[in-house]
Amino acid sequence: MMKSVLLATLILATIALAYTPAYPCTYCHTPFLKLNGNVRKAPIHKIDLTVGAHAGLYCSNCHDPKNPMKLITGDIVIPPNLASEKDLMKYNKLCAKCHPEVYADYLVGAHGNSTYVCNGGTAYFVIGYKHSPWWYHVCPEYKNMHTVPGKPCVFCHNPHDPIKPPASIMPLPSDRPAPPKQSAIEYTTTFLLILAAALSIFAYVKK
Amino acid sequence: MVEKGGKIRRNLLKGIAVTGIAGMMVLDRNKVKDMLKPITKEDLEDGYIYTINGVEYVISAESPYKTPEELQRLAKEKEADAKRRCMESAKEICKRLGENSPECKLAKKHCQEIKVKWTLARKGVRWAMALDLNRCIGCRRCAYACVQENNIDRTQGIEWIKVLNISREELELIATDLKYTDAPYKERVYIPLACNQCEYPPCTMVCPVRATWKEADGIIVIDSYRCIGCRYCITACPYGARHLNWKPVIVDALTLNPNMHVLGNVPREVHTVEKCIFCIQRTRDGGTTACVEICPVGARAFGNLHDPEGPIMRIIEEYGAFVLKPNAGTKPRFFYYFGPARTPPKDAVNPKSSNWIGNPPRPEEGAPGPNVLPGGEESFNEEKKSDKGM
Ligand code: SF4
Q1: Is residue B139 lining ligand 1, measured as CB closer than 6 Å?
Q2: Does the model's pTM come out above 0.90?
Q3: What is the structure's pLDDT at B312?
């Protein structure tokens, strides 16, 4: 009994280890494993650079082949679910190497994607009117705010397949309520005209 | 007599000629050049300049509130009014859900947070917006974020931004489809339309009570205390940007945006007109508009038109731009352009990947079609090699 449980645990652990994306990358990519980064497909990482907008690149175009945990800009790769927004912002430099025009757009705010920050304030994300998203900004003063780039590049563009698929569509715009029926308007207008005429005649006769 | 008059005139002319020549010799050439420069519209546009904390602000000559003090008083009045209306709503919420419910507490807190600002227009600023029609996917997020930011009544069906869905080939505004349920499609273009903040606004010209005017930074504002609801401006607007509150505006304490500007998103009165004001409560204090912030594809850019390093100038110089209904003569400051990259539309072969964009699916091996990338074959071979190497 004990033996079988132990065996099962061992098997499970092996399977789990094999299928967990290993981190840090040096766990597998040891200095002894001589890789030159001349690869386009890394099935273990579910990365295929033969398709998508970055088709034609090699791993070594962005990653240091000796230590893939390092980018060629010198920054350390952190898995997206562990990285903070500030960490991700560092990778913008790498994108800018090949896309200087877009990066210039991004810096001046012409790439869209800007938000504002204020001293001592926060912003939180709410789902409100018609289930649409909105940033609820809470500032002590709502003065002296600063417009900044909202999100890092890799927040929207998966670096291994960077074209952003379209987001979902929000519900239909609401209708202004229908106007009253044409006949109703006509009757009311006629009635008011007759009333006005009667009143004027009455006033004239009374005098 | 005639002789004498002729003599005087001749002497006068001689004098003028001599002065002219002397002036030409004495005067600095650059100064003369400066004098001959044509006067632009901005120079002519007079306003009242106030310096507060070393920053120059301008109050437009068209504005009925001529001094900061007047505006401040108006802001105080509107703040008291907004707080009163908010508290009414909060009380109703408390009555419905109980005094101790979190909603009740939140509503009351929101009402206390309300701040009505009266920030003036910065000198030399002209706000403008640019929108990339190649990137917009017509998702309407901007329209609904706008509703929340600007405290628009949710029961009257007013949305300041309308997303027009028109044919990409014809670009005909008349054949607009507002009620589409699926987007984006390859052969359609989506045009979010709100107030264009025109340089020559026809709507302010027709207002009989001066309730709407162009501010010094180009934003057309409406004062809901002055508006009488005659709706002349609605008919004058070529873009259909103005909307009438036809019944008392509901202020919901739970969803209220406490950041308000006296000429902007402060809750409006009944029977008044409202429209997009470029999020005056955010932008005049250095923020960006709600639609720019929420757009999931970054189609919108907002900035100062006169800023050579700003986004608008960059877009106009880099990509070019056009405006809607240029022949209406309104000179809008809302620019549309077709940017360099397009968000993949719906009917691509594989909508979840980027394969549709100049990078069609690879043909079968050994049958290089016309669609093969430069070096397509080569990369295949290399792949095999490297796979083996691993
Ligand atoms: S949020 Fe952006 S993509 Fe969506 S409709 Fe508005 S401008 Fe277009």
Answers
A1: yes
A2: no
A3: 92
Residue contact B288–A174, C-beta within 8 A: no
Say if residue A21's pLDDT is above 70.
Answer: no
Neighbour tally for A89: CB within 10 Å: 16
pLDDT bracket for residue B349 (50, 70, 90): low
**A51–B294: do the CB atoms touch at under 8 Å?**
no
**Strand pairing category for A114-117 and A146-149:** antiparallel
Closest ligand 1 atom to B145 CA: 1
Minimal Cβ distance to A165: which of B182, B344, B375:
B344
Taking each helix axis from N to C terminus, what angle separates B68-97 and B102-113, rounded to the nearest 10 degrees?
170
B4 with B70, same domain: the answer is no
Task: Answer yes or no: are the C-beta atoms of B254 and B212 closer than 8 Å.
Answer: no
Residues B8, B43 within the same domain: no
Query: Measured between CB atoms, does A86 come within 8 Å of chain B?
Result: no
Query: Which structural domain range is residue B91 located in?
Result: 39-337
Total count of domains within chain B:
2
3-state helix, strand, coil in chain B (%, to 5): 35, 15, 50
Map tokens 């508009």 to a residue.
Answer: B289
* Shared domain check, B26 and B111: no
The tens digit of pLDDT for each residue in B67-126 reads 899 999 999 999 999 999 999 999 999 999 888 888 899 899 889 989 999 999 998 899
User: Which DSSP letter does residue A121 get?
Assistant: -
Same domain, B153 and B195: yes
All residues of chain A having their beta carbon less than 8 Å from the beta carbon of residue B311 are 105, 108-110
The predicted-structure confidence for B9-62, as pLDDT tens digits, reads as follows 899 999 999 988 888 777 777 777 777 776 565 655 667 888 888 888 998 888
Q: Which band of pLDDT confidence, cut at 50, 70 and 90, is reported for residue A85?
A: confident
Residue B361 CA to residue A171 CA, distance in Å, equals 33
- Given the cut 0.90, state whether the ipTM is greater than it: no
Is the Cβ pair A166, B355 closer than 8 Å?
A: no
* Residues B333, B235 share a domain: yes
